Each structure stands twice: as structure tokens, then as C-alpha cells.
Amino acid sequence: MKRIVSLLSAVFLAGITAMAQQRPPAISSPDVHPDHSITFRYFSRNAKKVMVSGEFLSAPVAMTKDTLGIWSVTVPPVKPDIYPYSFTVDSVQMSDPNNTYIFANERFKRSIVDVPGDQLLVHSLQNVPHGKVSYRYYKSGTLGTTRQLLVYTPPGFDPNGKTRYPVLYLIHGGSDTEETWTKVGRANLIADNLMAQGKAKPMLIVMPYGNVRPAPMPDFTKDMVNDIVPFIEANFPVIKESKGRAVAGFSVGGGQTLNIGLTNPDKFAYVCSYAPFTATDEFKKNFTDWSPDAAQMNKQLKLFTISVGTEDFLYEPVKQNIAMFKDKKLAVKSYIVPGGHTWMNCKQYLATTLQEVFK
Amino acid sequence: MKRIVSLLSAVFLAGITAMAQQRPPAISSPDVHPDHSITFRYFSRNAKKVMVSGEFLSAPVAMTKDTLGIWSVTVPPVKPDIYPYSFTVDSVQMSDPNNTYIFANERFKRSIVDVPGDQLLVHSLQNVPHGKVSYRYYKSGTLGTTRQLLVYTPPGFDPNGKTRYPVLYLIHGGSDTEETWTKVGRANLIADNLMAQGKAKPMLIVMPYGNVRPAPMPDFTKDMVNDIVPFIEANFPVIKESKGRAVAGFSVGGGQTLNIGLTNPDKFAYVCSYAPFTATDEFKKNFTDWSPDAAQMNKQLKLFTISVGTEDFLYEPVKQNIAMFKDKKLAVKSYIVPGGHTWMNCKQYLATTLQEVFK
């Protein structure tokens, strides 16, 4: 996915952009090498110190400047995956200005670097049939506005055919956007690849925008149940029963998943929560002094999973929640794996549970 | 489209993110006020100088810092439109870290601010039926790779119906991406609004990625004719004749439009070039010592337009090209309007020509 800037086009672009307005020269960053080492570059004649931070590094590393003002550093080989990173130029943290691939988020600007494996990874663009990702608008009566969501439809999807598809409703993290699951999580490519191998059922994946600020958080639960699900069911050939609906999400979206799914087990038969953040009023209200009819819920829920990494900063509260649900006699399946509160882990959580829903 | 961060959610997010990793506090930027003035904010305790630059300003303006380290400035009312802007923090130019809306581009990182009008604008999200924007992959035999393109399908589009739609192939500027026409140019909303008013014909709009670096530029002409058009015609119910194909583009894409359209008048009956950049080998090769059969081409081309602003840095060469095409007796229609080499102008060029193609 890296877009190499050749010398010729760099000269050509330098010409046009110099005329249009003053911009830095065209340089290539990041460059991922065959041995999985990565070179990062940044242009500044005036900066005093440039550092790169990334989720493949245990600490920021310094770049060095050449005589033209191009700062660079090459980091040793890293495990193939997609990683967020950023530059710190003097006191300023920023995304890599030469990298098109930005971490879709409302509060920080980081770039992402894709280190391909020697074998294709579950999130790689592979030579398989591809589904489509469509950007759609829906009217939210709950929130009194028009909102955007993304819909993945699988390869061979026929909007007018007789097939009725199940739907996974997939929610991003706290300050992410409706694009984070495709742009960073590659949910569409993970689905393409698992479906091509027959490991996941053909399904729609609906990726809404989960933040409802300044509305109170529980309004997203209402938006999901009263606006998003009805919009999808009115516009796509889908199964309109709980056995055709799954809800999943990461971090704040993982907490929303528990709130939405476990208070509506008649509507969602599959609930998959990834590293859930649950220190919210809504979660407290729903699950403190909670006395569920466990036998009934275990019948309704065909799958209830919670995933978390042992280095996740939420590992302890997530373990406590798993214990709490077990204590209520709910059939919760836990996936405890290595790793932190990262989108590298998040992709794996999705890849695991995509193979289990609707089966 | 602005996402307001309430005090409550700011506290909530500050909690989770402080735990996850060190991030700046949640602040709201930009804030567009009812009188169309705009407040920009940036957090830094250490910066010495923070400036905002934007296409609504004739020169950068300085922000001032409060005791908490929040820099801000309010600029006087600006004409409603969508504008790119950036911050300069000490020596570093960057996008606004608190704004989700980023100018999709490979070489610079700017943010965009949407200043709504008192009346709805042609690019506003209006209460009309909305088409869909789908992200698709196609295999480019020309370039030997899988590439992404965006396809807008109009409201009421039926992939299996009897209607055959015309297609506008719409190309971005030099360092833009396949997303720039929707993310910055709002091509989908402009089309929704004009179609709702009956001013534009229902059509597909295909937005490919026009950069082929390090391949030579003419390879994009081949990619368009031999890969993109066949992919669309194999996968969508479209008119497979020149009268059902238009090509348009901005800046470098405007030059590509002339190269693609005028060397293939049997394939594209509508050619609309916006502020074309033509200082390329391909353009020189195609149109130096060119002796077209003007009578034949004027019969084939149902519409040939070139748009440019009088303050555009390409105004002079574009005027020379218009004169050159007129000299060759081609029926070129020129739209000379106020404004510069900007996406504000670009949206207007599209809105104008969308009402003329396929009629």
C-alpha cells in the first residue's frame, strides 16, 4: 500500500506545489524493508530534535538530520503487523506528513505502518474475492440528526436476491470514528480472507459511529436498537431475528457491546466484547445488583465472549467482569491472550470471533 | 459535522486515555460560531508560538496561550464554504489534532473546517435521498497490482434493474487520493442535492486513484481505458458507449482528463477539465503539433469544458490551452470564474458541469 515517490514525480510535484504554495519536499516515509526494518523520515531545517514513537517500540527513538534537513532513523526488524506511530518534533507530537495512512481518531493524530509478513496475514490484501464497504447516511430519531455508518457486504452479495444475511454490528473505541474498523482494523479484509477460506459465514458488518457526545452514553444503546438496526433491516436483505444479529466492539465499544447485548438478549444472540472499558454510569446501572435469569439468557445467547490481553491496561477490570458474569452463571467464554490495549490485538479478537458467530 | 466534546465525556476520556498512554486533554477545535467566525484551539505547555493558516486567511494569524496551556484564536466571520487549514507550532506545520476531518492527501496534512451557510449550500448534507459511496478493489493489468477506487451510486440505484446508468470518471489533484473528491470535494453530496432538484441526471461517479508513481504518468491513461472502465462496465448496469461516459478532473487530474478524453473521443463523449495542470510530457506529446479532425471530434464530443479561476496560479497556462484548443477549431466551452487553485472552486466546477453531462 506504500506509494513510492520517484525522483521524476518528486521533481514534477515539487514544481507544481512550489508554485501553488510553500510545502516541504517530497520524501518517502515510512519505508518498510524486506527484513521488516523500517526507515522513517521527516523534513525540517529548523527542528532541534525529532523522535519517532510507535507501538513496535518500547521507547521513542531519535532521528538524525542530514545536510538537506531530512531527518531519518531505521528501526530494527519488527513483527509483521499494522502499527500506529507518531513523530515528536521538538515539543510537538504529530502524524507523519508523508504517509497517507492515518489512524482514524478524533483526539490524536497518528500514522499507521503496515509491515507485511513473509506469509500473508489475516488482514492482508489477498488474491480472493472482495466484499464492498459502503458509506451510508441514516436518520437517528434518538439523536435527532443524520449520521454516517459503514456497511461491509460480502463477496457475491445480491441486494435483491433470496439470501437473507446475518449482521455483525461492530463498534470502535472511545475516540475512534466509524472508519477506524476498516482503516486501522481492516475488518473488511479480515472478513474477505476468512470467508474465502470458508472459516467465516457470509455476513454483513455494520460499523456505526459510537460516540454520541454531548448526548449521554446510553443514548447510543437506543440509537443502535431503535435507529441503526431498523435502518439496516429496512435497506438490506438480512435475517430479522436475534439469531441473525451479533454485536461486538473494542474498548469503550466493548463496554457498549455489553450494555447493548446483555440488556437485549432477545435481539442479539451473539455478544463479543474486546477489552471492554466498563467504568461508565451505564454499565454500573445495568450490572450492579443485577439478577439475570441466567438459564433463560444462556438459551438466548448462542455466543458470549470477552477477549483481553494480559498486558492490557484494562486486564484487571476485564478479569473482574468475566468473574462477575460467571458468578451470575452466564456462559461467558473468555479469550486471554498476550498483548496490550492495541489494534494489533483488536484485529486478532475480530478474526477469532468472526469464525464463531452465526454458527 | 463538528463533534462536540462535553465536559463529562472529556473527563471520562481523559481518564481512560491517561491510563492508556499520555495524550493531550480533550479540547474542541474548530468551533464555528453562528456569525461564521471560527475559534481554533491547540494544547501545548511548551510551544513558543502557534499560528493558524487557512485558505480563508490572507496571512497566518497567531494564537495566544491561556494559563492551562490552551492556545486559541477566533478569526472574524468567513464566507460559508469548506476550507483547508493547518497549525504551525514553532517550526512545525501540522493538522489540527482535535479535528477528525483531514484533507486526504499524500504530501501534506491539513484539516478541513466546514462553515455552514444560512441557506443550505450545494455541498451541504441536506434532507434529500442519499446515494451510496462504495470502496472497491479492482485489478489493474496495466499497473500489475490491486488498486482501490470509490463508486458513487445514485439514490434508488438498482444493481439488477433494467436501468442503464451513465458514468462520470472523476480524477483528483496531484498529491490527493481516491478519497479527496468525497472527503474534501463532497462529490457525493453535491450529486445527491443536484439530483434531488432534478438538475443532474442519475449517474454513477467513479473516483479512481490517479497517481501511478513510480510508473510513468501515461500509464494512468491506460489504467483508465483498459482496467477501470472495463471493471465498472463488468460490475455495474451502465451504458457501454461514449454517450454514457464522461471524464473530469482537477489540477493534475484536469490534465489527465484532457489526455484521456481527447485521445479517446470515441470512448468519452463528455470531457470536463478543472484548472488543468498540463506541464507534463504526456500533454506535450499529445498536443504539440496536433492536427485533430475537429469536425469529427466536435461531433463525437457532446461537451468539452475547461474551468479555471482568475486567481489560479495556473490561470495563464489554462487560458493558453483554451486558446490552443479553439485554434484547432474544437468546440471548447470555458468557465472563467473568480477564485484560486482551491477545492472551494473545485466544488463549484463540479456542481456546474454535473448539470451539463449526459444531457
UniProtKB/TrEMBL annotation, chains A, B:
Cleaved signal peptide residues: 1-20
Q: Which InterPro entries match?
A: AB_hydrolase_fold, Esterase-like, Glyco_hydro_13_N, Ig-like_fold, Ig_E-set, Mycobacterial_A85_antigen
Signal as a keyword of this entry, yes or no, is yes
**Chain ranges of the Glycoside hydrolase family 13 N-terminal domain:** 34-91
Is Ribonucleoprotein a UniProt keyword of this protein? no
Q: Which UniProt keywords apply?
A: Signal
Pfam families xref list? CBM_48 (PF02922), Esterase (PF00756)
Please give the PANTHER family that the UniProt record associates with this protein.
Answer: DIACYLGLYCEROL ACYLTRANSFERASE_MYCOLYLTRANSFERASE AG85A, ENTEROCHELIN ESTERASE-RELATED
Name of the featured protein: Esterase family protein
This protein's species is: Nibrella saemangeumensis
